[in-house]
Specification:
18 strands
Length: about 375
């Protein structure tokens, strides 16, 4: 069927699902990204045919030819969002339409056919409905949803592929950082950059993350949780962390985050924080921040808080910054008032505990 048609999913329940007892044991301490549900959703694409063969079926390995285009030319994109249990036993998602729109934008940048947003969102609903018992309880528990798409045409020529596979898997998760919400340490990379102007920085593709891994390993070697990348041209301006956007909170409660210039992923949590902070009375600015200013403003006390934000980590305070020539603390290394207030507001909103004037929360069940 063509990309504009309604895509109906065939539901094929897993004939051998994990038992209730084994599932409960797994959900007691799922960690992050190590436990998976019973099912997955798939949709195929072929040039001239469009999107077809939509299914929800038992999660299983994907057969792949060694000449599949993705293995050679990296045509691949993905998304990440969560489903949450509510106090009344229901299930919500947070801004899935925004993820669907970003999935389209990423596909276009990577010369891939865009999946219709309606099919993207419908796949989330269908998988959550069949695997709802996998959603953990508790404020840190959620069902992490990982939609991804890759070129599976068997062909070695350098051109956009003619065949693709969309897959959605789900993983019950706890807190992204072990130990819950604690200030993290970050390493400012002196040698590596994440993305350059004109590159794929604004697309959510695996190659961006692969390029960050050596710098992330360097951060861990220096006792840090995450890496911070500077711009690729001047090596002066803060771009983002390895997998999260960054915000600076000043002594007048102004929030500043680097602007979207094509090298930074347009985070959905980032956009939500900008809106919520403005509504709370904060002045919000999207403007460049140099690392030199970050260091000087922290030393003077003008910079009170810094936090990272993203789907996986929600909002996480940054307490210490390390770099080749030294280190410094942010706000004494303790979680900041503004950071934690915004985090709690976002968590309550995602789980349907407070009013949702923006229509961001989608009730699934």
């Amino acid at each position: 069927m063509s990309g504009g048609d309604k895509i109906e999913f065939e539901i094929r329940p897993n004939p051998a699902p994990v038992s209730a007892a084994d599932r409960a044991a797994l959900l007691a301490n799922p960690g992050f990204g190590r436990v998976f549900t019973d099912h997955m959703a798939t949709i195929r694409y072929a040039d001239g045919k469009g999107w077809y063969d939509a299914r929800v079926e038992a999660r299983a390995p994907i057969p792949m030819d060694p000449a599949s285009a993705v293995l050679h030319y990296a045509q691949e994109i993905f998304e990440g969002l969560k489903a949450y249990r509510t106090a009344d036993g229901g299930v919500t998602m947070f801004r899935p339409e925004a993820n669907a729109a970003r999935f389209v934008a990423s596909a276009q940048r990577m010369a891939m056919p865009p999946l219709p947003p309606e099919a993207f969102v419908d796949s989330l609903h269908r998988l959550i409905e069949i695997d709802r018992e996998w959603i953990p309880e508790g404020e840190d528990g959620s069902l992490y949803l990982r939609p991804f798409m890759f070129a599976n045409e068997v062909f070695l020529g350098v051109r956009p592929a003619n065949e693709y596979l969309y897959v959605l898997i789900a993983s019950p998760v706890g807190a992204y950082f072990s130990g819950g919400v604690q200030p993290v340490k970050v390493w400012v990379s002196p040698d590596y950059t994440r993305a350059a102007p004109g590159g794929t920085g604004a697309a959510k593709c695996g190659g961006n993350y692969a390029a960050s891994l050596v710098a992330q390993a360097e951060a861990i070697e220096h006792g840090c949780d995450q890496v911070v990348f500077l711009d690729a041209v001047e090596r002066r301006f803060v771009d983002e962390l390895g997998g999260m956007n960054v915000f600076f909170v000043y002594d007048d409660d102004t929030l500043v985050t680097p602007p979207l210039t094509g090298t930074i992923l347009p985070g959905i949590t980032r956009e939500s924080v900008l809106t919520l902070a403005a509504e709370a009375g904060h002045r919000v600015e999207e403007r460049p921040v140099t690392f030199a200013d970050w260091q000087a403003d922290a030393a003077s006390g003008r910079l009170r808080e810094v936090f990272a934000c993203g789907t996986a980590a929600v909002i996480t305070p940054i307490g210490e910054v390390r770099f080749p020539d030294g280190e410094f603390l942010i706000g004494g290394g303790e979680p900041g008032r503004v950071t934690m207030a915004l985090r709690q507001q976002l968590v309550d909103l995602q789980r349907g505990k407070v009013a949702d004037p923006h229509g961001w929360v989608t009730r699934v069940i």
